[in-house]
Amino acid sequence: MKILLVSDIEDPYLWEFYKPGRLDPYDLILCAGDLKAEYLTFLVTMSHAQVLYIHGNHDERYAKRPPEGCVCIDDTLVTVCGLRIAGLGGSARYREGPYQYTEAEMTRRIRRVNRKVRRAGGVDIVLTHAAPKGCGDAEGYAHRGFACFLPMLDRWKPKYLVHGHVHLQYGVDRLHAYGETQVVNACQKYVLDWPEEDEE
Questions:
Q1: Which terminus of the chain, N or C, has less C-beta within 10 A?
Q2: What are phi and psi of 190, to 5 degrees?
Q3: Spatial distance between the Cα atoms of 154 and 129, rounded to a whole number of angstroms
Q4: Averaged over 3-27, what is the pLDDT?
Q5: Which 8-state DSSP code applies to residue 144?
Q6: Which residues are CB-neighbours of 12 under 8 A, at least 6 positions away?
Q7: Rounded CA gap, 158 and 148, in Å?
Q8: Structural domain count, the chain
Q9: Alpha-carbon distance 200 to 198, whole Å?
Q10: Alpha carbons 56 and 107: distance in angstroms, whole number
Q11: What is the DSSP letter of 13?
């Protein structure tokens, strides 16, 4: 099973220079925030895959025009293709505006999502915009990670946490390990091959 991860930067290969069939290999598309609504609408239209997204800190424009045909999973857990996926969008608060949270605010959101994860018997992928603290975040105040993500990973041990927000041009690595969880920066595009043994 192939999962296309996207965030922050629209990939010209999949949009302006798209050729029919380029999205055919993907069974699921996960967006970790801060992409144009038109881009996500294009991806869901040109592929046979469902597109799930959470909000980035620049996605206030979605209030007037959300991505068509896509599913927002902020603050909830869904099961798609047999995978339990939880969504927690937004970044650390650094200015006024929506989709920005203090540690305390994000902790309260995690508690609500944890109840849904418990009822589902666990979670396979956590989809966030910000990174966990110390696992792919950046030194700048606006791009710091959430420390409150770490207890969630300790408790549920998801196979992946997928995030955006921190562009790779900032000099960060795309992949980090935290315990039993692989932390993946989805900036622009990354392909995840879900292990066959986990599909059964």
A1: C
A2: -150, 145
A3: 19
A4: 96
A5: P
A6: none
A7: 15
A8: 1
A9: 6
A10: 17
A11: G
**What's the pLDDT band for 196 if we cut at 50, 70, 90?**
low
Calculate ∠ Cα 143-194-83, nearest 5°: 80
Beta bridge partners of 163: 185
Residue 134 has which token pair? 């110390």
pLDDT tens-digit profile of 30-78? 999 999 999 999 999 999 999 999 999 999 999 999 999 999 999 999 9
Alpha-carbon distances, residue 99 vs 21, 66, 116, 176 (angstroms): 34, 14, 21, 24
Residue 65 makes CB contacts below 8 A (sequence gap 6+) with: 37
Please answer whether residues 146 and 93 qualify as being in contact, where contact means their C-beta atoms are separated by less than 8 angstroms: no
**In CATH, what number is assigned to the domain containing residue 167?**
3.60.21.10
pLDDT 10s digits, 86-132: 999 999 999 888 999 999 999 999 999 999 999 999 999 999 999 99
Residue matched to tokens 């109840």: 115
Per-residue confidence band for 166, with pLDDT thresholds at 50, 70 and 90: very high
CB 145 within 8 A of CB 153: no
H-type alpha helices, 35-121: 37-46, 103-120
Kindly state the helix (H) or strand (E) to which residue 153 belongs, with its residue range: helix 149-156
Please tell me the predicted confidence (pLDDT) of residue 200: 35
- Determine the straight-line distance between the first and last CA of the chain, rounded to whole angstroms: 11
> Alpha-carbon distance 70 to 43, whole Å?
9
Task: Tell me the residue range of the domain where 90 lies.
Answer: 2-198
